[in-house]
Amino acid sequence: MECALDAQSLISISLRKIHSSRTQRGGIKLHKNLLVSYVLRNARQLYLSERYAELYRRQQQQQQQQQQPPHHQHQHLAYAAPGMPASAADFGPLQLGGGGDAEAREPVARHQLHQLHQLHQLHLQQQLHQHPAPRGCAAAAAAGAPAGGAGALSELPGCAALQPPHGAPHRGQPLEPLQPGPAPLPPPASLCPRDPRASAACSAPSAPPGAAPQAAAAASPPSSPAPASSPGFYRGAYPAPSDFGVHCSSQTTVLDLDTHVVTTVENGYLHQDCCASAHCPCCGQGAPGPGLASATGCKRKYYPGQEEEDDDDEDAGDLGAEPPGGVPFAPCKRARFEDFCPDSSPDASNISNLISIFGSGFSGLVSRQPDSSEQPPPLNGQLCAKQALASLGAWTRAIVAF
Amino acid sequence: MIPGLGALTQDTLWCFSQLKGTVEIGATEADIISTVEFNHTGELLATGDKGGRVVIFQREQESKNQVHRRGEYNVYSTFQSHEPEFDYLKSLEIEEKINKIRWLPQQNAAYFLLSTNDKTVKLWKVSERDKRPEGYNLKDEEGRLRDPATITTLRVPVLRPMDLMVEATPRRVFANAHTYHINSISVNSDYETYMSADDLRINLWNFEITNQSFNIVDIKPANMEELTEVITAAEFHPHHCNTFVYSSSKGTIRLCDMRASALCDRHTKFFEEPEDPSNRSFFSEIISSISDVKFSHSGRYIMTRDYLTVKVWDLNMENRPIETYQVHDYLRSKLCSLYENDCIFDKFECVWNGSDSVIMTGSYNNFFRMFDRNTKRDVTLEASRENSKPRAILKPRKVCVGGKRRKDEISVDSLDFSKKILHTAWHPSENIIAVAATNNLYIFQDKVN
């Protein structure tokens, strides 16, 4: 009768319950789903604190190593840390620094968390000014995805509006216009109103690639200047394939902490990255989705636990396997997601379907009907348990039954 | 029979009395009993099931010939209370399952009860008819209209006795007042009003008025994303018509006084026990959610049931319960599995006996537990077909929690979690209990010596 008290399995079980509750007779049971969301929150807290502890341990180890090659590792790890605990720590009921001692000992990460927290708070305030832009953005994304370039960042679901205020990286242009700012907040209209839990990453413009090395340095504890570390952190923390060490000047990476979709635009090409893990059933299978970027635009899976692997990738396409049904920017193609996972287990496609539904927030989940005739939520793309982990903050409490 | 006296001393033995319900083979999900309730005299016993039916049993008059057997309960009336519905606006199916039945006190020859599903409360009148009029002028004996041209004489219709017929008619339908699922109804002691509670709101109704209800509690947050708790049960005070309590999924109970304000969002009393941090787990929130709250007959105490315990609270002390009883603490280490198979969401009810000296609640494997508040004894009994011989004495059961298992003990891993006793009822003045085990209703009485 024993079951694995593993945080991840609990999360997937909980998500499955929420998903199946939508099709149960009698409608969604508010009480049960609320309780399940508490379990989700608890499991995520544990998972994130474990992750952070592990992260800290690694950083301790690597501080004794060389600087240059593991540079990106630092970045990556530093990214990974806030990417997870940040969301955990500040999005929602969880407290910053709730990860325990490890977090407390990590001043830079804490600072980054704090910045994320600020960004998120401001973002939360601006949720009130939601406007229907996301669909438009997503639609634009859908249109723009094949082109792969123009307004690349606008094609991030829900992050579209980042672009205009900061200048879109246009095809072929150096991505200088994307200026880092310490806690930049685009005007409300440009936030990601699609999803209340859209993360601070949406608010943070990405740094020009040139900032990457400094950002990378910034990401490493503890010497980085605070302002540069925020967007630079986003930028540098996630090593785009060609980032390591030298990089092309026309590259920008933006991470959407909400969806863990990392977009790297290189020379006008779009790299569509999706958060996934080795365990994530929704990725790593299936054919490349249509409408995705060109050959150099590759999907890189973000494996939080596999930073070293990623670091070694010079070739963006190394991890190659496209996220299945990889049309994250085509809202209307969400329903086809399952088509691209023919090999997935039923559980996997259910969970990924669930999470793509989930993507628009728990309110979106619960207020929607499971039939595909309804207009799909603006967010699409492959979310998986990892993303759920990062984005649980607001929607652990968000249950709109009707 | 002095109710409750020595209810759980060594002298008290519970015996099987009756078993109602379908045999296992023909059982469908619609037959699963979802609520059990005695009326105020104990003469009637009502059950509701998942199929929306209500079955009322009536106790036989005790015959002087057979003093050993006290009155048995036989079917008195059966009717379809609720039908499945479809909310076209929200594309939602509304289950016909009867969530709660509550009797009104009897004021004339007819019986009245409230039954509710997730959305609609209905007032049913159950009345007897043992005479019928015969000899109409304009209708013949079958009820067909006669041709007026053939009528040549007039006569006065007379009432003739007929076989007893019990008919149930819906007298009121209280609909469209709840957005969320109704979990409780409670008749006020003024017998004019009652309340219905769903996950986020409680409404006050007058029995005569069906198109309006008064909202007295609303805990819906402005932003649903800030929702942290829901209402799980509510009940009026047995004597004070202005007082009621409602429990929450966070393990708290609020007592409200309707005289204080129209909208009782601010409680008068707040009952909460501080959480034991050493027991914290993934499922702490789930197992602390209160599934049932009941006032004692005296009105002095309330009893709450959460997943693992039953607690008795004194209305005069808010910071902790006065008594806590472990129902099945051996499940604490199994919470993860119970979460996986959804058993952790089971909502167990709890009941007082007539004198408030013994409390009873259900468990798994068709076990149910009784706790004597005075002697601090407790007993575990089982509702099973094997023990279903007339007047068979129920043997106390025991669950062994690891280590050496004794002969008649059952180990935790052998428990059947599909056999759960969620609904029980205790006769208001006698030691007669009704225990619903899935689709069967067991009636037990204490042994008459």
TrEMBL record, chain A:
Q: Where is the composition biased (Acidic residues)?
A: 306-317
Database matches in InterPro entries: IER (IPR008653)
Family as reported in the entry's similarity comment: Belongs to the IER family.
Q: Which organism is it from?
A: Bos indicus x Bos taurus (Hybrid cattle)
- Locate the compositionally biased regions of type Low complexity: 212-230
Q: What is this protein called?
A: Immediate early response 5 like
Coiled-coil annotated residue ranges, if any: none
Q: Which Pfam family, an example, fits this chain?
A: IER
Q: Where is the composition biased (Pro residues)?
A: 177-190
Sequence segments annotated as region (Disordered): 161-230, 304-325
- Signal sequence, start to end: none
- The record's gene field reads IER5L
Automatic annotation (TrEMBL), chain B:
The answer to whether the entry has keyword Ligase is no
Q: Which domain of life is it from?
A: Eukaryota
Q: Look up keyword Magnesium and say if it applies.
A: no
Enumerate the InterPro entries for this protein: PP2A_PR55, PP2A_PR55_CS, WD40/YVTN_repeat-like_dom_sf, WD40_repeat_dom_sf, WD40_rpt
Q: Which GO terms describe its molecular function?
A: protein phosphatase regulator activity
Keyword annotations from UniProtKB, A to Z: Repeat, WD repeat
Name the GO cellular-component terms. protein phosphatase type 2A complex
Q: Which family does it belong to?
A: Belongs to the phosphatase 2A regulatory subunit B family.
- Protein name as annotated: Serine/threonine-protein phosphatase 2A 55 kDa regulatory subunit B
Task: State the species of origin.
Answer: Bos taurus (Bovine)
Organismal lineage: Eukaryota, Metazoa, Chordata, Craniata, Vertebrata
Originating gene: PPP2R2B
